Amino acid sequence: MASSHATPVNRQFRLRNRPVGRIKTSDFDLVEAAPPEPGEREALVRTLYLSLDPTNRIWMSDMDQYMPPVEIGAVMRGGGLGLVVQSNSARYKEGDIVSGLTNWQDYSIAGERPDNMMGVIPKGLPVPLTAMMGACGMTGLTAYFGLLEHGRPKEGDTLLVSAAAGAVGSVVGQIGKIKGCRVVGIAGGADKCRFIVEQLGFDAAIDYKRGDWREALAAATPEGIDINFENVGGEIMDAVMARMNLYSRMPLCGMISGYNSGELMRGDFSPILMRRIRISGFIVTDFAAKFAEGSVQLAQWVAGGLIKHHETIVEGLENAPVAVNRLFDGQNIGKLIVKVSEAPVQ
Amino acid sequence: MASSHATPVNRQFRLRNRPVGRIKTSDFDLVEAAPPEPGEREALVRTLYLSLDPTNRIWMSDMDQYMPPVEIGAVMRGGGLGLVVQSNSARYKEGDIVSGLTNWQDYSIAGERPDNMMGVIPKGLPVPLTAMMGACGMTGLTAYFGLLEHGRPKEGDTLLVSAAAGAVGSVVGQIGKIKGCRVVGIAGGADKCRFIVEQLGFDAAIDYKRGDWREALAAATPEGIDINFENVGGEIMDAVMARMNLYSRMPLCGMISGYNSGELMRGDFSPILMRRIRISGFIVTDFAAKFAEGSVQLAQWVAGGLIKHHETIVEGLENAPVAVNRLFDGQNIGKLIVKVSEAPVQ
Lengths: 346, 346
What we know:
- Two copies of one chain form a homodimer.
- By secondary structure, chain A is α/β, with parallel strands linked by helices.
- Chain A has helices at 54-60, 138-151, 167-178, 190-199, 213-220, 234-241, 270-274, 291-303, 320-324, 326-329, and strands at 10-15, 28-33, 42-52, 80-87, 97-100, 107-111, 119-120, 158-161, 182-187, 204-207, 225-229, 244-252, 266-268, 278-281, 311-315, 335-339.
- In chain A, the strands form three sheets. In chain A, strands 3, 4, 5, 6, 7, 15 and 16 form a seven-stranded mixed sheet that branches. In chain A, strands 10-9-8-11-12-14 form a six-stranded parallel sheet, with helices on both faces.
- At the A-B interface, strand 13, helix 7 and strand 14 of A face strand 13, helix 7 and strand 14 of B.
- Strand 13 of chain A pairs antiparallel with strand 13 of chain B, so a sheet runs across the interface.
């Protein structure tokens, strides 16, 4: 399976069928193709890392979604970091590291049209390269714009974050602390709850695997909830919304509890009306025009220790389909990454 | 039951028990009390008209709501118009007509504290008095601020209004036409559908009592829906949300289909996320500071024929509990009013 630099092989995960429930390796065909040939104004990119995200699960399905689903037989869509190994483009130089839709394969093409959104990462950043997928990349930007633009935190607000030990939630909570909020996280298990309080500085953590999580939620939010940064949906969302204050805000980032089931992601609308809640669905790319501003701010916070970047790295492209399930099993803390090939020393 | 001016009696509907399902007259005790005595800085008000609104049903229940529920044994809460018949207040003069919470009774007290929100209606308005409860009163203001502040209509937008022949919906659609929207209304029955198109100028009407209403909804909104002014909830809301466009807006004014059942008012959250919909729950009193501005604009539109004010008047306070069911049975067109006593000639 390993590719050699002499005779490169492009391993690709192609979607065989839409997963039902948990993702299985057999939902994909792992094929070996020749690397693509870059055309004019294009570059060849070798994948270094894949970013595993809940949105991968959405793209595998045919549910109503914000990009077209991955077609059956097509290479699985996914973000990542890659190294430019050959270039016919003035925009990409050999040795550049790019961020974008590498997809689940060893090699991809960076073009000058924005179709796979391959952007060159500036050299000399004060943060580790992998942070450019996490706290300073799409994940961090999701947290940053969702919280600041839609949540509009004010000093003293109570901010509730679900999936709080995950890649997005962990950054949301830390930005909330920077902005002076009381930050309460919901996570599964004692380890995650300790992590967000002791490592990330959350004010309180609620373990939804305990029988008394509803009482713990009430106890941790004595003045109600001003902002609910919603990542999970389901009965946790219902319980959180029941505690939201008048004129509170709810950036709707995801509903991960519903992605495997394929069922409608339903919830109670009555608090929206009675408490005049403002709910805003969003996707990070809504803010593409401001990514540079956001990344600079996030990198400063990470470099200054105000935001801790935590990641889990799984070795080997071949493990991507198994690894992505960690996002839905509650096994993951921080940013989940697959290492595909070795990055050059920066 | 009739009150005479010589020995006035204050008939009051007091809530006996919280209605289950449809409202029954037996859910109330109709008692005859002495009229209240106005204290210092207070005035005695004789009720002229009651405004019947879906919110009456909410106040009767103990569901999560935006004011305290009416207590068992207390006079039923409700808005109306009244005549000042005696005054110890510089703010209210005998002969003034006031608008506010008269409640379901013949006599009430207007105080200088804003506890029952009794405001004097200016004399010489260019619209009929009862319009001050409808298109130029709370009903019209609900439509005006919900649509303009939360819906943010732009010329060419497709505006969808549910309960479109009702008091609020009929004004929403007409304001939408003034703002250059394509306006599509959902209503029950051929009469209401003809009314909103032929009398009010809606571009299209969908009769939800027909088996093909989903197809009709699709046909009437070929470019999707930019604003959904939501009044009903339930399966109609789900079907409408499934057609909402990217970055569309949804002022959530009511969910009348759920008020009688007492069940959670649930809906599908996935379009909010995938289509980045902004949902804003609101209550007209959120905009109390701008009521004067809104009423003046609405009165100009009504006087100028741009907004048609349509009302149904039921005679007699004793009929209020039966009449209010019309709002939930789909029997009502326009503003539903109970005439309690004769207004002076203006």
